[in-house]
Every structure is written in C-alpha cells, then in structure tokens.
Specification:
Layout: E1 3-4, E2 10-11, H1 18-31, H2 35-49, H3 67-73
Antiparallel strand pairs: 1-2
Helix pairs in contact: 1-2
C-alpha cells in the first residue's frame, strides 16, 4: 500500500519483527522523536553507504570453478635446455 502526500512523502507498510520494533520504540522515546523519523534516518544512512558491485566485462565468467587448479595440473614437462 502506497499513499502519496503533497509534501513529497509516501506512506508504506513494512513488517518488522517484534523484538526490533520494541528496540525502535525505546530509541525513538530516548531521542524524543517519532519512529517514522528514526526509520527514515536509518534508511538514509543505509542508502548513503550503498556501493554497487563492479560490473564484470565477462572475463572469467565461464561458470567453471577450479580452472587454475586444472591448468596447474596439466603443465607440460619442461624441455631440456640442451
């Protein structure tokens, strides 16, 4: 459910485990703020720290595992230097 307000805010519903909800209530009361403000701040901090994973150019994306080990096991015998 999303409700849009004129102030640019949208209302949404989330499910929160009861222990976490209790801790949020305590923190909000200690800070004398609303739980909504506390949750928005937490979301802003989380979004600010987000760094997307670097995209691969496809090198090494064959899906095979252990390739280096296999290649190491298949090394040719060294040639004589004479």
């Amino acid at each position: 459910m999303i409700i849009c307000y004129n102030d640019g805010m949208e209302r949404t519903t989330i499910s929160v485990p009861e222990p976490l909800l209790g801790r949020l209530r305590v923190i909000a009361a200690e800070r004398r703020t609303s739980m909504a403000t506390l949750i928005r701040e937490a979301l802003e901090e989380k979004v600010a720290r987000y760094r997307p994973k670097p995209r691969s150019l496809g090198a090494g994306a064959s899906g095979k595992t252990g390739t280096a080990r296999e290649v190491g096991d298949k090394r040719p015998e060294p040639r004589s230097w004479r």
